[in-house]
Input
Amino acid sequence: MPAKDVYHNVVRTALQKDGWLITDEPFKLKCGTKDIYIDLGAQKLIAVEKGQQKIAVEIKSFLSPSPVIDLESALGQFILYYDILRRTRKRSHFVSCHSPANLY
Output
């Protein structure tokens, strides 16, 4: 299991305050024989559509000396997760990547 990011609990709490139900922590995906973990899986009831919106949330802190390398890593993870979700039964999930607001 991967370690939780520095901002993990902050993002989790914010999602819950916004009405999201945390369904998976971490959210597990299979890529061939490998297990891949996204930080959180969540869902929110949408009254207008009478359905559920589901998201997979990857949380990034960008704490290394090189924010460019952190960004490259985060983007690579996002693309990988997006592709796996698109190819699997978990197509109902939208991938979301969260990082500190002052990153840019």
